[in-house]
Design goal:
Shape: globular
Mean pLDDT: 79
Largest sheet: 6 strands, antiparallel
Structural class: alpha+beta
Order of helices and strands: EEHEHEEHEHHH
Strand content: 15-25%
Number of domains: 1
CATH topology: RNA Cap, Translation Initiation Factor Eif4e
Distance between the termini: 19 Å
Number of helices: 6
CATH class: Alpha Beta
Oligomer: single chain
Number of strands: 6
CATH architecture: 2-Layer Sandwich
Low-confidence stretches: none
Strand order of the largest sheet: 1-2-4-5-3-6
Length: about 150
């Protein structure tokens, strides 16, 4: 099931959201895949059945730029290699695995920094400087609201 919010489209399993599973803040993370919005739409179509059968937790992709986009595919750290293989079977190569909340673990890997350079590039191509500042402030507010509801950032 897809659920669109400003700037992002989520791929979620059907049913009620039960909040973050116990242990997610220490062991939950995401694979990051970059490409065009068309690429992410193709990947989303391949991920939807995997999310529905719970082989993959969930995913979201950036919808504010047609030229540059990114997909976050959520999984547990102990499942990250299996999840990477599923993504690769769909024809995409994840760039980096990043912890969702346990950010201290991210700083020890070079791929984390490379991934953030890609993120910055996408944002700079998507927005003019003033729009970028407004977007970042809105994203922070939205992340706080989602966290209060039990959703991950």
């Amino acid at each position: 099931m897809r659920k669109s919010i400003p700037n992002w489209t989520w791929i979620l399993p059907s049913g009620e959201w039960e909040g973050l599973p116990e242990g997610w803040k220490d062991h939950g993370g995401k694979w990051l895949i970059y490409g065009s919005l068309d690429d992410m739409e193709v990947l989303a179509s391949g991920l939807e059945p995997l999310v529905e059968t719970r082989e993959i937790d969930s995913a979201k992709f950036w919808t504010s730029s047609h030229e540059r986009s990114a997909m976050c595919v959520y999984t547990w750290d102990k499942e990250k290699e299996r999840t990477r293989e599923l993504i690769e079977k769909l024809g995409f190569k994840p760039l980096a695995f990043e912890y969702d909340y346990a950010r201290r673990k991210n700083w020890t890997r070079l791929e984390f920094f490379v991934s953030h350079l890609y993120k910055l590039r996408i944002l700079l191509k998507s927005f003019r400087p003033r729009e970028l500042i407004r977007f970042l402030l809105e994203e922070e507010k939205e992340a706080d609201e989602l966290a209060e509801m039990g959703f991950r950032e």
